[in-house]
Amino acid sequence: MYEIKAMTIQDYEGVSKFWSEVKEFTISLEFDSKNRIDSYLRRNPGFSSIAYFNGEVVGTVLCGHDGRRGSLYHVVVSKDHRKMGLSKQMIERCINCLTEAGIDNGFLFVSTKDENALSFWNHNGWRPFTEVVYHYKNFD
Predict the structure, then answer these.
(1) Pick from 14, 16, 23, 21: nearest CA to 55
(2) 48 in Cβ contact with 6 (< 8 Å)
(3) Is there a domain that residue 135 lies in?
């Protein structure tokens, strides 16, 4: 039986293990350390989603906003549990939280190499925003 609920920092051990085991998902556990995820969850309490199946983590969505736009990160479902509507349910839960907070649009990042993910997002009404280029810089 699936259970979808708000992610809390108490879920972190299972979540970090899950993220490190999903082959299609590249993660830096240094970047997504317990402290950083805790900070993110505190800034956006109740917004992120986690899916469990028989007590094991099988899906995640980190969700938050900056007061203007929503954001989704780490939308991941275990290969064995895909095509069962888990992503849609977790995303719907997140979008409901965002709309309740007065947020009416959002963004996410998808690897240009992940054809399945690109197809999923396009099929579900998300469109590439080609007018901007993503830039990144470390501040250390």
Answers:
(1) 14
(2) yes
(3) no
Cα 131 versus chain centre, distance = 23
pLDDT at 92 over 80: yes
Phi, psi of 88 (to 5 degrees): -60, -40
Q: Which two tokens stand for residue 60?
A: 């995640």
Which strands sit side by side in the sheet containing 2-6, from one edge to the other?
2-6, 49-53, 56-65, 70-77, 106-108
Q: Which segments of 25-85 does DSSP mark as H helices, in order?
A: 34-43
The answer to whether residue 6 sits within a structural domain is yes
- pTM score, whole prediction: 0.91
Domain carrying residue 97:
2-108
What single-letter amino acid sits at 139?
F
